[in-house]
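Input record, target 12 of the design panel.
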């Protein structure tokens, strides 16, 4: 059986995978929701959902510090990775261990396609198709709720880092009716408080990941941006592109009402 990943690479599988290693947290959660508990044998230390898997599954390092030797021990027949979250050199090394299917996700459309593709590979296409359809229908409803405020979404502190247009988070902001003031910048630009001020966002969102922004960080930034609404937000909702998207629309509706 031949399958094309989201980098248009062809991988060959002789049968439906019986031992999968996932090195992407959001895709690990998706595999669980597709009912693949017995099939997934390895995950990363950042694959915190579901909690039962986090407690019991073998861990193969972090998304950017993969323990290749550990994966070899697990003898997988499929490894599921992501272009952005995993290092190219790790993926190249893993290709000698087992077929590696790579996602590349910048939009909701990409995410929905990934869900269906993984459903095909794992012989769970009916569940995957239903999941993707439900997510798509719910997101379509958000188009009527857009309020078109300008926004800066911060993912790191010291130095501050934000997101450009060519990112999944930027697409999620669009569904919330928010215009990214740094949409014309590179994917993850470093920005100063002065640059944020000059961009004049009406809203600044502080993500819970990868940097865990807290109230103290909000209070400090508020001193420099007294006229800007600053809100702590759930980074998983904005950046996890698997089945966690089922929780996204209700969260976005609450956020939109807050704004």
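The sequence produced for target 12 reads:
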């Amino acid at each position: 059986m031949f399958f094309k990943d989201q980098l248009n690479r062809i991988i060959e599988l002789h049968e439906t995978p019986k031992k999968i290693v996932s090195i992407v947290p959001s895709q690990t959660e998706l595999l669980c929701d597709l009912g693949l508990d017995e099939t997934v044998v390895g995950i990363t230390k950042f694959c915190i959902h579901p909690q039962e898997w986090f407690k019991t599954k073998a861990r193969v390092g972090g998304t950017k510090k993969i323990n290749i030797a550990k994966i070899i021990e697990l003898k997988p027949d499929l490894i599921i990775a992501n272009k952005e979250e995993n290092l190219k050199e790790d993926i190249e090394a893993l290709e000698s261990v087992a077929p590696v299917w790579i996602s590349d996700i910048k939009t909701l459309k990409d995410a929905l396609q990934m869900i269906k593709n993984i459903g095909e590979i794992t012989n769970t296409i009916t569940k995957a198709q239903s999941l993707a359809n439900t997510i798509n229908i719910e997101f379509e409803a958000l188009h009527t709720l857009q309020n078109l405020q300008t926004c800066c979404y911060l993912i790191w502190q010291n130095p501050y880092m934000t997101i450009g247009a060519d990112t999944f988070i930027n697409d999620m902001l669009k569904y919330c009716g928010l215009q990214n003031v740094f949409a014309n910048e590179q994917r993850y630009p470093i920005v100063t408080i002065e640059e944020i001020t000059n961009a004049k966002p009406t809203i600044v969102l502080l993500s819970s990941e990868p940097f865990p922004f807290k109230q103290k960080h909000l209070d400090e930034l508020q001193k420099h941006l007294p006229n800007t609404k600053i809100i702590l937000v759930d980074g998983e909702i904005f950046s996890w592109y698997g089945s966690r998207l089922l929780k996204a629309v209700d969260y976005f509706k609450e956020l939109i009402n807050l704004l």
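The chain has eleven helices and 13 strands.
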